[in-house]
Amino acid sequence: xxxxxxxxxxxxxxxxxxxxxxxxxxxxxxxxxxxxxxxxxxxxxxxxxxxxxxxxxxxxxxxxxxxxxxxxxxxxxxxxxxxxxxxxxxxxxxxxxxxxxxxxxxxxxxxxxxxxxxxxxxxxxxxxxxxxxxxxxxxxxxxxxxxxxxxxxxxxxxxxxxxxxxxxxxxxxxxxxxxxxxxxxxxxxxxxxxxxxxxxxxxxxxxxxxxxxxxxxxxxxxxxxxxxxxxxxxxxxxxxxxxxxxxxxxxxxxxxxxxxxxxxxxxxxxxxxxxxxxxxxxxxxxxxxxxxxxxxxxxxxxxxxxxxxxxxxxxxxxxxxxxxxxxxxxxxxxxxxxxxxx
Length: 342
Fold this sequence. Notes:
Layout: E1 6-10, H1 15-26, E2 30-35, E3 50-52, H2 58-67, E4 72-75, H3 82-87, H4 89-110, E5 114-120, H5 143-162, E6 165-171, E7 173-175, H6 193-201, E8 209-211, E9 223-224, E10 226-228, H7 229-244, E11 250-254, E12 260-261, H8 262-273, E13 280-282, E14 291-292, H9 297-303, H10 312-332
Parallel strand pairs: 1-2, 1-4, 2-3, 4-5, 5-6, 6-11, 7-10, 8-13, 9-14
Antiparallel strand pairs: 9-12
Helix pairs in contact: 1-7, 2-4, 4-5, 6-8, 6-10, 8-10
């Protein structure tokens, strides 16, 4: 294996980070996972060495980059719950903005000048007509989205001042699971539509709801652009290669260019599982727009990125397979008994 193929994956034990570690290994890179395991999973670290550390620990980050001869960094570490960002913005500015500044300082200290950043479609805000392109002026409506935009602006400044080559990947709705079943989506708490719907289908939660059935959409429910996590992982490899080959830093939408409504998702779950999903109808959530769909043209033109796994059937089937595997594993776990001392 080449000596110049090591990539530091900050937040590499999380949902998207772990899928990217697997994709890096398959592409001939050596992923080095850096994670504090506050939300990541130790059993998701399978394709390279792991360093337990916090993104605010600049010295540990710099030492890790130097010791492993890292050529680039993939940055996933962030707090990412929109509702929590509204109720506790300090946490989000500290973890996301200050944490990224710590990472950038460490990269400068270690003379590493290539970064792929996990951004979000949340930078665009809530009101759009048609496909959303990168030329649209970002107007985030919550602290989570604002932290992502601030980081994008930081990276642009670092590129001008310090020649940092960076790509900001604006995800739309990450979904699905590794097709081999190695890893999948496992958040606590779980807030994303598809895994929550699957948990409801399994009978594991009883509070699953559709928020709003009166939108100006064909079936009244909100429409979103769902992209398979394996496609997201592949896009990171393409962005890394793009930067290493001298590509200009930029922001790229990662989506499919087509949307699916909440009711379409539930119908697909019924098709794939043969089961019905119980749900309640609740009022719209503040800030939820009727339609959010990416224009993926720039990522296709510059990175050569075309989704391969993001049809709705593959997304739902892979997620269901993962959730069923998790439940079978939990069923095999020995039950703890409590011994009473009398």
